[in-house]
Amino acid sequence: MSKLTIGEASKPRFEFRTFGQDFEQQRFRMARLSVPVPEKVWERHSDEIYILSATNDINNTKIRDGKMDIKTFVQTVDGLEQWNPLMKGEFPIKREVLEKEVIPAFQVEMDLPSQDEFSYDEFISMVKSHPDLKAVKVSKQRFGYMVNDTICEFGYVLINGAKVCTLNSESTETDDIKKTMNDVGMAEFENINYLQAIKRVIGMIDKPLAN
C-alpha cells in the first residue's frame, strides 16, 4: 500500500471533516498521535472568498489570490466524501469560461453583460446582485498533522467574521481515515464539508454545526 505524502499529487482522496465550537480534546490527541510533518504545514494562513449557491450543494467554488478553484462532489463511501477538481481559472476570466463552466456549477441562471472577459471585481459584483448567490469571506488558520498515514488538520476558521473550528482527516484509504477518526475522537461528530458549514453559519441552511 503506497503511503500518502503531503503535497503529493495522488489518486482521488476521501475526506472526513467537521465544524463546531470546541475540538480541543481532539486537537490534543491529533497532535500527540501525529508523526513529524514538513515545517511548511505546521501553520498556514489564507484569505478566501467562497461563492455559495442556494441551488447547489455539489460544487464547491472558492477564490484565493485571484484564482478560482471549483471542486465537485463525486460520492460518499462509508460516510466519507470524495471530491474531484472541476475547473481552475484566473481573473480576468473569459466569458466562455463563465458560460460553460462557472455558471453551470452554480446551477443558476445568470445574464452576463456583453463583454468578452470579466475582472474579479466585476464578477463579485454580479454574484452579490444575484438572489441565489452569496460571496462569503473565509479566513483560515490551519495546523497540519499526519495520523495513520492520513493528512489531518485542526483549524480556526472565520466565516464572515464568525469564528468556528474544524477537524479533518483525508486519504486515498478509507480504512485509515476511519481508524484516525476513532483514535482522535472525531467519530462522534457529523461529517460537515466547507459548503455545508458556511451555509449553516450564514443561515442559508437551518442546521447547527457539530457542537
Strand content: 35-45%
Element order, helices and strands? Answer: EHEEEEEHEHEEEHH
Fraction of residues in helix: 10-25%
Largest sheet: 8 strands, antiparallel, barrel
Distance N to C terminus: 35 Å
What is the 3D form?
Answer: elongated
Give your account of this protein's structure.
By secondary structure, this protein is an alpha+beta fold. It has one domain (14-202): Beta Barrel (Hypothetical Protein Pfu-838710-001), CATH 2.40.320.10. It contains five helices and ten strands. The protein has helices at 24-33, 95-106, 120-129, 174-184, 194-202, and strands at residues 14-20, 44-53, 59-64, 67-77, 80-90, 93-94, 117-118, 133-147, 150-159, 162-171. The strands form two sheets. An eight-stranded antiparallel β-barrel has the order 1-5-4-3-2-8-9-10, surrounded by five helices. Strands 6-7 form a two-stranded antiparallel sheet. The radius of gyration is 18 Å and the shape is elongated. The relative contact order is 0.25. The model has no long low-confidence stretch (mean pLDDT 93).
Q: Top keywords for this entry?
A:
211 residues; alpha+beta; Hypothetical Protein Pfu-838710-001; eight-stranded antiparallel β-barrel; 25% helix; 40% strand
Secondary-structure blueprint:
Layout: E1 14-20, H1 24-33, E2 44-53, E3 59-64, E4 67-77, E5 80-90, E6 93-94, H2 95-106, E7 117-118, H3 120-129, E8 133-147, E9 150-159, E10 162-171, H4 174-184, H5 194-202
Sum this structure up briefly.
The chain is α+β, with helices and mostly antiparallel strands and 211 residues long.
